[in-house]
Design brief:
Blueprint lengths: L2 H8 L2 H31 L2 E2 L2 E2 L1 H5 L1 H27 L3 H4 L2 H10 L1 H20 L5 H16 L13 H27 L2 H33 L2 H4 L3 H28 L8 H27 L13 H5 L10 H6 L5 H23 L6 H19 L1 H5 L4 H20 L3 H8 L10 H10 L2 H6 L2 H16 L3 H7 L1 H23 L10 H23 L9 H4 L8 H51 L5 H24 L2
Antiparallel strand pairs: 1-2
Helix pairs in contact: 1-4, 2-4, 2-8, 2-9, 2-13, 4-7, 6-7, 7-8, 9-10, 9-13, 9-16, 10-12, 12-13, 16-17, 16-20, 17-19, 19-25, 19-28, 23-25, 23-26, 24-25, 26-28
Bound molecules: protoporphyrin IX containing FE.
């Protein structure tokens, strides 16, 4: 999986030093781009969604940074290749070798992807005119930056979920934190005060994420007891100290903000603070680049090679039993990060409503938390652990992620909460975060996916695309693939159940009958899929489970058949529940409609005006009269 781990040490410190430097420039340049795009799309005032003049001017900075990022990303590929092959840099400049590295070696593919994203950002940055465009490009840049981390030396150590997920969170968080501070430094004094207020929220969350992910990262790589004197450990400690310094400066920010000082005095002081903060961050970035291009000290009790750790990223667990299924915890850092972020955003929304004196049902909050708990259990709990080693446990995780957790989440009305609590524009002209969210909800892309047929295709069609092609085996083997697969299960489930039983507003209201039809279709397609799995005669995982040499429940085909019956049993129940819920909603909506018509009739009757029914009858009478008139004219009466 990671040849880098083997060849890095042997290829000589010169190339290593160059790799650290080009990595640093790559990270610094991509941070500058993210900082500029964050300022353009989130910190600076927009005009009804269009970028203002100051924001448009920032594109030049992004353009230059983009150029540096492209050079650094390309250099990184050459240097990593030279490391791989343990050859001088010149020898790595061979087109055939480069081509096979970026097309056949996973790390090479991810690094090439990063280079392509850097080029894309540079091409598109000049065309960005709207908030949406800036946010989209920022997300693309973040994606490009983290891709190689999924295949870096992090992947060589056990406990992949933590060792791979935590550096990804680390890098995304520090991109927003350092990038935001860099962006603030570029702004005109008149727009800084407004930008600082908004950035301080991002900075707080990003700092927490950088520290937690950094510590988790260090924990998976370092046994401090034995390795604390190594240069790797010393640099980690140095970074902790620098981070404490940054947190102190951040605290200064916030206290001067809360004291309302930012608007008037202290701009000079403020810019000085930014200057100091950026200098410390640059040192931390350099140290981080060194850490990520140098091997952590090998653990004293380094485990010998075993297939499970190499393929699944975790040592083979003992045979599953109730205790292990309930109590095991194998953290999937990325999903933990997503769950913590979503829960923090939801609870913050509920807190805001309560503080405003508005009501929000506690049932909804509990439903949301149950959904989050189920996702955490199916990715980091006992089921999440065994899902890596057995098809049947994988299917249980799939059903929890795709069928059960989404029902709890859509019934907690997260979109309604967002619409009621997201910040409005800071000035009359500004569209604001809420406005951008509303525009996104009404976009053509969202309208396409909330179409019940499209939602059903994604929900059930993807089952066949995943399990009856080589996709499943491929995604089980790669960290980014496994994460993407689980994320797909959750998102496809959220979309489907939002369309069918969601309590949130939907751009296009789906008639109840249509929902029932879609649910029946989902039920039969799901049953067909499960039966196909139960009657399968060959293994669908392309040898993934076989390569793990699992000492328990060794009959892989039987385990696959069991997965089919689990899919059937656990899949049909939520759909059945959704069917019952849809029927109840239907009856309830009909009686509500009937009451509305009655109330309206009474109100109109009280005002002596014909009610809807009378109106309708009048309309029919008019039609009949017109027809009679036409007929009599035709007859020439
Ligand atoms: C509590 C504080 C922190 C700790 C414990 C910490 C720890 C770590 C660890 C263990 C790594 C992984 C290295 C590897 O891949 O082997 C890392 C990577 C990195 N850190 Fe930190 N870090 C902290 C704060 C920061 C801060 C404040 C910054 C920058 C402002 C930063 C920038 C980086 C960078 C750029 C990388 C390389 C990421 C990559 O793989 O591309 N870190 N850090």
């Amino acid at each position: 999986m990671t040849l880098l781990a083997v060849s890095a040490t042997s290829s000589g410190s010169f190339i290593n030093a160059l790799t650290t430097i080009s990595k640093f420039f790559g990270i610094a340049a991509s941070i500058a781009i993210v900082g500029v795009l964050l300022s353009m799309g989130f910190l600076l005032e927009d005009e009804e969604g269009d970028l203002g003049l100051e924001a448009l001017k920032l594109r030049t900075v992004a353009l230059w940074s983009g150029g540096i990022w492209i050079i650094a990303a390309a250099t990184n590929i050459i240097l990593t290749l030279a490391n791989f092959l343990d050859v001088p840099i010149g020898a790595a400049f061979d087109w055939t070798t480069i081509r096979s590295f970026v097309t056949q070696i996973t790390l090479g593919q991810y690094m090439f992807f990063q280079l392509l994203v850097a080029i894309l950002v540079v091409i598109l940055i000049r065309r960005v005119r709207q908030v949406g465009g800036a946010i989209f490009l920022m997300m693309a840049a973040l994606f490009g930056v983290v891709a190689p981390i999924f295949q870096s030396h992090s992947a060589a150590s056990g406990s992949h979920g933590l060792a791979v997920g935590s550096p990804v969170i680390h890098v995304v968080a520090l991109m927003l934190w350092v990038g935001g501070v860099f962006g603030l430094g570029l702004l005109q004094p008149h727009s800084r005060a407004m930008a600082v207020r908004r950035f301080s929220h991002v900075a707080l969350w990003a700092t927490i994420a950088v520290v937690l992910s950094g510590v988790a990262n260090a924990w998976t790589r370092l046994n401090f007891a034995t390795a604390w004197q190594t240069s790797y450990a010393v640099i980690v400690i140095a970074k902790v100290v620098l981070t404490l310094g940054l947190i102190f400066i951040g605290y200064q920010y916030r206290s001067s903000l809360n004291a309302g000082e930012v608007t008037s005095i202290g701009w000079a002081k403020f810019s000085k603070l930014i200057g100091i903060e950026l200098s410390i961050m640059i040192v931390a970035l350099a140290l981080g680049s060194w850490l990520s291009t140098n091997q952590p000290p090998a653990p004293a009790n380094e485990t010998k090679y075993d297939a499970a750790t190499f393929i699944a990223g975790l040592p083979m667990p003992k045979a599953p039993n109730l205790t292990r299924l309930v109590l095991s915890f194998e953290p999937d850092a990325l999903f933990i990060g997503l769950v913590v972020l979503a829960t923090a955003l939801y609870l913050r929304g509920v807190y805001r409503l309560h503080r405003q004196g508005d009501y929000w049902s506690g049932i909804r909050t509990i439903s949301f938390l149950v959904g989050m708990f189920l996702i955490s259990y199916a990715t980091s709990g006992g089921i999440g652990l065994y899902a890596r080693f057995s098809f049947s446990y994988h299917m249980i995780a799939h059903m929890i992620l795709g069928m059960i957790a989404p029902i709890f989440i859509v019934l907690s009305a997260p979109i309604t909460l967002a619409l009621r609590t997201l910040p409005q524009g800071r000035t009359p002209n500004e569209r604001g975060v809420r406005g951008t969210f509303v525009v996104a909800l009404h976009s053509r892309l969202v309208s396409f996916w909330v179409n019940p047929v499209a939602a059903l295709m994604l929900f059930d069609g993807s089952l066949f695309a995943l399990y009856f092609t080589s996709l499943f085996g491929g995604m089980m083997r790669s960290d980014i693939g496994h994460f993407a697969m689980n994320l797909h299960f959750v998102l496809a489930g959220l979309l489907f159940f939002h369309v069918i039983i969601g309590v949130d507003p939907n751009p296009k209201r789906v008639p109840h009958l249509m929902r029932m039809v879609i649910l029946f279709a989902a039920m039969s397609i799901h049953a067909f899929f499960s039966v196909a799995l139960m009657s399968s005669t060959s293994l669908l995982d392309r040898g993934y489970f076989a390569q793990l040499h699992r000492p328990w429940s060794a009959d892989l085909l039987a385990d696959q058949h069991l997965a089919g019956s689990i899919g059937w049993a656990t899949g049909e129940i939520p759909i059945l529940l959704a069917l019952v819920a849809t029927f109840i909603f239907w009856v309830r909506d009909d009686s509500r409609e009937a009451k509305r018509i009655d109330r309206n009739a009474e109100r109109l009757a009280a005002m002596g005006e014909p009610d809807e029914l009378a109106h309708y009858n009048q309309y029919l009478a008019k039609l009949a009269q017109r027809d009679l008139k036409i007929e009599s004219e035709e007859r020439g009466d």
